[in-house]
Amino acid sequence: MTELKYYLLDRGRRFSLLLDERNKTNGFLLLILANMIWGGNFVIGRIGVDYFPPVLFSLMRWIIAFLLLTPFLTKQLKNDWNVIRKHMKILLLLAVTGIAGYNTIIYFALQYTTSINASVVNSTTPLFIAILAVFLLREKLLAHHAAGIILSVFGILFVISKGSVEVFLSWEINAGDFYVLAAVFMWALYSVIVKKYADVLPLVSSFYVSVFLGIFLLAPLSLIEYLWLEAAKPVFTLPSIGILLYVGFLASIMAFLSWNFGVHIIGAAKAGVFLNLLPVFAIIFALCFTQEKLYLYQIIGGGIVILGVVLSSRKSLRFKNHPQEDKFSA
Length: 330
What we know:
330 residues, mainly alpha, 78% helix, disordered C terminus
């Protein structure tokens, strides 16, 4: 009986480890899927601005996402409404920065820069979050964090100046790259606010309401874009409708859910490294589906940026033999 008991315990332990490994594998796959979709979003966005003016493009994206989410979230919103109502100003700020601001500026920037450049510049997002967290959340900035930020800034300057000192000194830099930096600042501010209120605001319901508020912010801006700025008229064809479905469903909902479930499975600390896959996928898709070319300065600058992000993302430079518990943070 004793041997049978130990045999069953051993088999149970092995089965538990097998399930745990499969669960982690699923988490990795979800994180890869999220970054694959977001990487494709830069390429799709670059193509989409040829069909739609940027504000209208962003507006239609979030209208599609809102309509798709509504059947599933109305009941949840009723349950969370008391909390949502108390923090409506915060949700409005989330709508300005993350929903209306970030995406619209990105689509505007893609009229002037390549999707490859935009994705490389966008990869500095964790650095902007770290900097804002110091000022807004009073988090400490360690020496290796600062070194990583400086390194990544150098990488970005290398990319936007095309690796040329003459271009940098003459300030003949693509304005679209600076617009992407403005968009990254918006998203970093959005992320810091979400982090600050993570224990107060319900994740999915607050996202749903911020999308609704973002639509109301973008609607009058789209009208101004059309009437006063004389933006080009939208072109509705089978490819352009496919683009809208991609950004409205895959980039806005599927990637969001895949990322959050993936982070929940493997932990926020380990998941952060996967963000470095975004520019990789963007480059692959750009080379396959557009006329863009990959230049040496983009490879070098992108590598420096990613190295800086990895360095600044480490909690400590000390290596420990025992595993540390990962905590999910929205």
